[in-house]
Amino acid sequence: MIDVAIIGGGPAGVAAALALRARGIARVAIFEREASLGGVPRHCGHPPFGMREFGAVLTGPAYARRLAAAARAAGVEIYCGHSVVGLLPGGGLDVVTQQNHFALRALRVLLATGAREAPRAARLLGGDRPQGVLNTGALQAALYLQNMVPFRRPVVVGSELVSLSALATCRRHGISPVAMLEPGRRPVARWPLTLLPRLLRVPLHLRADIAEIRGGATVESVLLHDGRAIQCDGVLLTGRFVPEASLARMGHLAMDAGTGGPAVDQYGRCSDGAYFAAGNMLRGIETAGWSFREGAAIAQYITDDLCGGLPHGGEAVAVLCGAGLKYALPQRLARVTRLRGVLQLRVSAAVRGQLCVRAGEAVLYRRHLTALPERRILIELENIRLPPGVAQITVEILA
Amino acid sequence: MGAAQGSCEAAWLTPSFSRWTLRGMFDVVVVGGGVVGCAVARRFTLQGARVLLLEKAADILSGASKGNSAILHTGFDAPADSLELACIQAGHAEYLAIREQLGLPLRASGAIVAAWSAEQAQALPRIVAAAHANGVADAREITSAEILHREPGLSPAVLGGVLVPGEALIDPWSAPLAYLLQALENGAEVRRQTELYSGTFSGIWNLQTSTGAVQAKTLINCAGLYGDVVEERLLGATHFTIRPRKGQFVVFDKAAAKHLGTILLPVPEAHTKGIVLTPTIFGNLLVGPTAEDQEDRARAATDEGSLRMLVARAEAMLPALRGMPVTAAYAGIRPATEEKHYRVRHEPAQNYIALGGIRSTGLTAALGLAAHAWALHNGTQSLIRAPIPAPIAFPIWPQAPRLAEHDTRDWQAPDHGEIICHCEMVTRREIEAALAGPLPARDAGGLKRRTRAGMGRCQGFYCHASLAALTAGRFA
Ligand SMILES: Cc1cc2nc3c(=O)[nH]c(=O)nc-3n(C[C@H](O)[C@H](O)[C@H](O)COP(=O)(O)OP(=O)(O)OC[C@H]3O[C@@H](n4cnc5c(N)ncnc54)[C@H](O)[C@@H]3O)c2cc1C
Ligand SMILES: Cc1cc2nc3c(=O)[nH]c(=O)nc-3n(C[C@H](O)[C@H](O)[C@H](O)COP(=O)(O)OP(=O)(O)OC[C@H]3O[C@@H](n4cnc5c(N)ncnc54)[C@H](O)[C@@H]3O)c2cc1C
């Protein structure tokens, strides 16, 4: 029997496998539906990846190769070309390969299936339905894995980190974006990266959003909400990551509307204690390095759990996401005397105020906060002491 | 008319004349590769006719048949004693009769016409009476308790409804594809990217198309959204005018499907069937369509306001949909006309049949319309009647792509190559099959309709690149 089955061989899944092997877990298996390990970095043909993990600045594909080599060297059982298509209570997986379709059981399962960008439909973006409306992930895969250039003069939507990396990718492949659109009042990514559009001479339009995509077979133009039209031959929809959590959603695990991923406790444990989750599948986007460390950290908890050393998940304190917040992760806390780990938060709009954790009237934590969307906001859980008897705590931002 | 054509005409009046000696001459030219044209091509081919189907787009199903609700109707709410009702019921029956041989799916979901206001509830007895008058004997009124027992996810605001057990779900693309494939396997021809420009009748039809001249004894106009245009090109005047009516849809993630098993129909309004919330054969949940009159016959654009309205309507009926991810949004255009009924015209003197204005029930009625067209053609007693040899005794039954969620899919069988589209579980073998055979996909839409590749929740984030590589150089 497999001790730990890991679904997804990206940075989070591989890091977890390495950590599990390092702590002496005998049978650790990764099930990856693609032909090789590495996850999304396989087609991010740009640095920076791997600074903390491998002490070098690598491109995505080089980083993916390092991950795969490390997993092999550590004695991880690697099953590429294996799609997990169903989760059963208690740790049963339904797996499909080119040749067959089988079920297996593992003592614990780690979900590490990553995240993807919200597609056009999920954004309810109207207009015609021509070819050439893509996400960054699809663009990169086309360029790096297939050597295909899907458009020459696209409009880029979004100004997250990934949007800027998309600009750089375009430039490297002779694609000249005609405009970058950001619905908000300011770019989402941090200065000085936000200078990139200007450096690449791509006009950045703030408070600009597409009302309608126009075209026949291919994109001809986009119409903005303010009435402006921009001629282009493609639309690149960047960012707005959502967990690739359909396995969990279709199955029996409790989901969280805020993150779009499964609801977990501070150990990454799902509503079914045989399942854990790590990496971008928990919340949409973080860096590869973050996902890697998270995978390793959750692997430690899985090891503890296999040895009977993890506090019981039964009676947990719910973490409610209050005013100003888009999500709070984890969504519940197993009750222990000393909490470990971090509370990860995101806001949906720029805010300034008091970040506050309370249980009823009692304030458990408080600090001043100025925050922008998609920026990492953390609270070290060791700073929070749960009063006895509380069933829930609320995290919120008070103006 | 030239001498050569004259001899043609004389020749085909001689029963012993071999049809193969007249290469350019067809018994029937079907204009339009929508669901109606595909069904007509099949029916006439099986009756023994030499059929050519012309489609102006790169692939079939590029018009009204591209986007619909995929419901196989019973006709419970069709106009009494109408041709539409007869064709719906004949089409429904024939679909049930042939579907297993063609490998076509059916999900016997049943439908509930749900009343959400006192006014709508008052209309329910009338709906039952009309259904019974239309021969749908098993339609009956049900209480809100019974509805909620059957569909516990529905909003308790539902006041009551009419259960129509016979309404069912089918695959709206594999069905017409299978009809045309069966025609092709049994001797018909198809020319895509071939637009009918004009034609004159002088004993036979001499047709001009974008890919050359064609001759035929009989012409059947199944041009859907361009039915009036084609009729004008052929007869010089048209008996109907297309008034395109757009319908937008939102498709929810497959996770939504567990919340609803029955088609949820609204109490019909004067104008249209109203907004439907329904499972699909592919395991999604669909809400729509809107009903928007527009000038444009080709442009099926969506708009954010309507999509948001549809999501809100769906959430109100099925509260579990709140927060459910949206997988896709699309629009279809109904070939409505200035009148509600089907615009069928038969000109025996010119061997011309128009199956026009097949507005909102054509997916169901197509096989029935095809049989009706055959009956019209066969009943013609004029001198210039085009004799058709004899029905094909042992027709070939090709297999439609098997895409229904409840059937065994290709990825569940060995040696499928690999899974290319992970959201819809489409295999390399399925994609290669769709690019081969007598009717290979000719554009990205055609490939999606044959395989569902890229139609799932990621909308290409994972599979766009591999699909682009597999299809490079294959499309028109
Ligand atoms: C366009 C783009 C550019 C980026 N640029 C950078 C950057 O420059 N620097 C940086 O640090 N980060 C970058 N990132 C983010 C980084 O790629 C992610 O943080 C990281 O890949 C997350 O790792 P993960 O293991 O959680 O998920 P992923 O890398 O997404 O891996 C998930 C794996 O799970 C597999 N999988 C999914 N479902 C199944 C299933 N059902 N069965 C089997 N296998 C399955 C997938 O095939 C995939 O291999 C970028 C991301 C994108 C999209
Ligand atoms: C929103 C919506 C929901 C619906 N829901 C349902 C449902 O649930 N159940 C049901 O039974 N029906 C439903 N329908 C109805 C059904 O889709 C239509 O009745 C049917 O598609 C009409 O098919 P058609 O073959 O007549 O027309 P089309 O599909 O428009 O086919 C005509 C074809 O002719 C071609 N053509 C046009 N001009 C020329 C020319 N000059 N030369 C060559 N080719 C030409 C076009 O390119 C086109 O492919 C719905 C329709 C819509 C729009």
Instruction: Determine the fraction of residues in helical runs of chain A and give it as a percent range.
Output: 10-25%
CATH architecture descriptor of the largest domain in chain B: 3-Layer(bba) Sandwich
Helix count from the secondary structure assignment of chain A: 8
Query: What's the CATH H-level superfamily name of the largest domain in chain B?
Result: FAD/NAD(P)-binding domain
Oligomer category: heterodimer
Q: What ligand species are in this complex?
A: flavin-adenine dinucleotide
Count of β-strands of chain A: 26
How is the main sheet of chain A built?
7 strands, mixed
Low-pLDDT segments of chain A = none
Report the top-level CATH class of the largest domain in chain B.
Alpha Beta
Report what the structure shows.
- The complex is a heterodimer of chains A (399) and B (476).
- Chain A is α/β, with parallel strands linked by helices and 399 residues long.
- Chain A has helices spanning 11-22, 51-54, 60-73, 136-146, 161-172, 196-199, 246-250, 288-306, and strands spanning 2-7, 28-32, 77-80, 83-88, 92-96, 101-111, 115-117, 126-127, 133-135, 154-157, 179-182, 204-206, 210-215, 219-224, 229-231, 234-237, 241-243, 275-277, 316-321, 325-329, 332-334, 342-347, 351-359, 362-371, 377-380, 392-398.
- In chain A, strand 4 (83-88) and strand 5 form a beta hairpin.
- Chain B has 476 residues and is an alpha+beta fold.
- Helices cover 30% and strands 21% of the residues of chain B.
- Chain B has 12 helices and 21 strands.
- Chain B has helices at residues 3-13, 35-46, 83-102, 118-133, 144-150, 174-185, 227-235, 304-317, 362-379, 428-434, 444-451, 464-471; strands spanning 25-31, 51-54, 71-72, 111-115, 140-143, 160-164, 168-169, 189-191, 196-201, 205-209, 212-221, 245-252, 263-266, 276-279, 285-288, 292-293, 326-334, 343-347, 352-356, 419-421, 426-427.
- In chain B, the strands form 5 sheets. In chain B, strands 1, 2, 8, 9, 10, 11, 18 and 19 form an 8-stranded mixed sheet that branches.
- Chain B starts with a helix and ends in a 5-residue tail after the last helix.
- Mean pLDDT of chain B is 92; it is low at 1-21.
- The interface between A and B is large, with 44 and 48 residues.
- The structure holds flavin-adenine dinucleotide (2 copies).
- The site of one flavin-adenine dinucleotide has 41 residues of chain B, from helix 2, strand 17 and helix 9.
- Residues 31-37, 54-57, 62-65, 68-71, 73, 195-196, 222-226, 230, 247, 289, 332-335, 358-364 of chain B line the site of one flavin-adenine dinucleotide.
